[in-house]
Amino acid sequence: MQKKVSEVTLQMKIYKCSFCDVVKFQLTKFLTHLQVQHNHQADFSVTCDIERCFRRYKTVASYRNHIYRKHRQALQHPLFEKATVFEDNNESEEEVPEDDLLENNQNSFLGIDLETVLLGLRQHVALFILNLQEKHLLPKATQDTIVSSLEFILKFFQQNYFEIIKFHLTKSGFRLEDQEDLDNLLNNQTLIESVFSYIQSDYQLFKYCKEHLHLVEPVKHILGTNSQGKEDTFQYVPIIDVLKTQLEKPDIFESYRRTCEQAPSTDFLSSYTDGELFRESPFFGDPNIVRLHLYTDEYEVVNPLGSKRSVHKLAAFYFMIGNLESNCKSQLRHIHLCLLVRNQFLKKYSYRDILLPLINDLKLLYTQGLQVSVNGQNIILKCALATISADNLSAHSLAGFTCCFSSGRICRFCMINYKDLRSHVNEDDVIIRSSQVHQYHLQALRESSGISKQTYGVVSECPFAELDYFDVTKNFPPDLMHDFLEGVVPLVVTRVIQALHFLHIVSLNQINAELDAFKIGRNERANLPQKLPDSVLKKNTLSGSAAQVWCLFRILPFLIGHYIPEGEVHWDIYLKCRDIGDVILSPTIQKKIIPFLSLQIGEFLSSFQSVFPETFTPKLHFLIHYPQLILKFGPLKQLWCMRFEGKHQYFKRLAHNTCNFKNLSYTLAKRHQLRQCWELTSLDSLRQDNYTEGERVVPFRALPLEIQKGVIGRSEAEDVQGDEKLGVCSSLMTNNVKYCVGDNLIIDLVEEDIPIFMKIVKILRFRGAWMIFGKLRIPITFERHYHAFKLEDQKEWILVQPGEEKEFHPLDTYVHDDTKYITLYHRVQYSRATN
């Protein structure tokens, strides 16, 4: 029998749900399905594919409004699409009856029972409560009021609606008493109550989430009792259960697999796996190893004054999976809570008492592994603790080093004494701590009680030393945020400003006036620095967050550079500090520049001492170890505390909203786990945000001729008509990177580290593919006095697609004396994608 391919016009469009694969043949029913089934799902989003629209919406309501505004005809008339079918030559083309098309879809609803409906309704109500409670951080009392009101409204509707149905059935001559099932259903007044009875109390909601939504419950551990007989407790979230729920999500597991398959680089340092410590570790080479990066810190959840200070101070332990891709690890949802304890218990009890359940789980994860089920396959994954990030005080306290930074041996990387800081500005001048030396120090402390703890700078053994593979001298990386952005940078900036002020080169009032008048770029606006108080002239500290200090550090030349003569000795100290920051803050570093970095740091410290001989701090000393630590750990920015500390803000807002401080660690841990439970209902656990702002539709002919040629050339489309519609927007977020008209992108590098820029002029979407058009910008020279590239605009058009740029940070343009400049966040060096 011969076959032929023919084109048949279907009289309707098929709407397929991307969440559950349900098929609908009417747009109104598709909207209803989304509203009923998925509206309360975490990270809900839907893309409009009518007439190649491709706009994305995060709520069903906004999507419905868009349909009624832009595609109302789709609600009134079926869309016609062509589909390829195979037919016999002897058979005529017949229109497929709608009933046949709907048959399979309808069969799935035949025989549905009441219990199935109630089960679905319970889940939707539970997700509604979690959405309401955790997305908006509502206190329990507010949530209870809303839920009880909702229950009353549903009961009222059910009772009256059923009465209306019974009235019309009776009026039509239908005898309900002859239909026992229907009569029982319409007279059942407990349907809504049976739904809410499963989630009325905290206990019931918690139980429901554990049984149906993979909630990992925090576990209370008792340390002892206080003088009043009350228990001293802390909350531990079982790390094994958290890892299991995370890695059994298919998209998270695939991200983990992709990073494991990447081979370490030999020339570039782009991640922890490129460092020497990973290559030397006992689990190097195991493709199934899961790297865990731990973080600890103490913080106030409120802002108390006077005697109330430290009353509600907590110590927290978070962790993240190191094998995820970098654009995923930066999301707070992938920084997991491990342990919460009142800070006062750290002084009353030992770290080992508090960390014992975590240490026991880490032992099991390494010796027995973690069994996960992904796509029907059971896989055993070994997990190991790779690093512990913390500020210097927390790191020294946990690792067992002295916590005094004003005398004795103040460094956990070497044996230097505080009084020798100024005379040792190179790492070759100090004795580096090693595993063997550290074990000798611990043995000496145990055997001789007469040895002072200040002798070696070691006061106790780290509790994580119980892990066979853990080395306290190798698993505590330095923290860029605390050492550099909150230590070195404020010291350098304040000392330079003080010198310039007292030399009458530029006054503090002039600096603040320049800051007021300065037009800060869009990408820096969120971190606008604070005004400098008069105390800056006396103290070596800057107010504001680390991000604000970093912003001031970068834009300072545009504020005061024109006041300062070329070659000014104090300004040269600032510029040398910028050179160091460009390298150590980079996410990708060439190995061959590490020796040059050592020379830069030595020269900077020597110059700083000669210009400011009265000031030298431990954080300046820590810089001498950075070159070798970068070789060991990889780029230190990958392990810094800044992103971890972003997690603190969630707990602070939650504590403020709930106003429940009776058992603070339990309240916060429980609410965090409920939020994580709600987030895991999302099918997009990696949350690759995609959205546009200011999008509009334009015909192809309205584009400039150069852009038309670029679109046709890149898409290889030959059938483009002048009236074909394209989407044009002012900003685009895709794959967690935001592109805005007016921003600058680095599109290429010449001579390894000289960037070529492109100013974004137009962002458009053609047949579902995004294209970014801009004008080329060439750096004429690097103006060292301003630590910025001087630009020259070109007429040449450049086309890139999202992800083709060499650096994902968009950059702002700054103008001084009609000259355009761009200053970088860090030195840009191209390598493979980091993991």
From TrEMBL:
Domain C2H2-type stretches: 15-38, 46-71
Q: What InterPro entries has UniProt attached to this entry?
A: Znf_C2H2_type (IPR013087)
Listed PANTHER family: C2H2-TYPE DOMAIN-CONTAINING PROTEIN (PTHR31912:SF36), IP13529P (PTHR31912)
Q: What is this protein called?
A: Uncharacterized protein LOC113090870 isoform X1
State the species of origin. Carassius auratus (Goldfish)
Q: Which gene encodes it?
A: LOC113090870
